Amino acid sequence: MQTHDKKMPSSSTPLLYLCLLRVSCLLLLQEAQAAPHGGISLRSQHMALLHWKATIASPPPLMSSWQENTRPCNWTGIMCTAIRHGRHMPWVVTNISLPDAGIHGQLGELNFSALPFLTYIDLYNNSLHGALPVGISSLSALSVLNLTYNQLTGKIPYEIGGLQSLRVLELSYNRLTGHIPASL
């Protein structure tokens, strides 16, 4: 007499599939955050902003949310947007808005090349000093740059005139010298 054992699905099979699905999702998420745009990731933007904060003398209370263990999208004065990149929609930093924040530092310490998706910078009425960095000219999506009421010195870089998306440029009440570049 022969008996046929029909294998009954184990109660752990759905759990196994759920675990595999979760691992797959985590791997996809990690891939999307790793380098969605030629090496630019939310992590590299995070590090660029933290580096800038570290160069500021006595970072103001408004920047207390800027911590290593939190996403920049949750920081005061930072806005992120999900942008389409192939099948992914990674988050990128698009706005820095810290008017009247009491920031004492140099804008040139901010690595603009790590923040290529910035469309809006408002650092009105702080104590930013030093030259207006040429690196801002790499921000091809920048539409608003407000640096009014700071202590910026030197000339306005000619390259800023090449920002095709720039609609608002506010630089009054600084210590800038020279002529306004013809490119503007």
From TrEMBL:
Residues 1-34 form the signal peptide. Transmembrane segments: none annotated. One of its GO terms (cellular component) is membrane. It is found in: Membrane. Keywords: Leucine-rich repeat, Membrane, Repeat, Signal. Gene3D superfamilies: Ribonuclease Inhibitor. Its main location: membrane. SUPFAM superfamilies: L domain-like. Residues 47-81 form the Leucine-rich repeat-containing N-terminal plant-type domain. This is Leucine-rich repeat-containing N-terminal plant-type domain-containing protein. It comes from Triticum turgidum subsp. durum (Durum wheat).
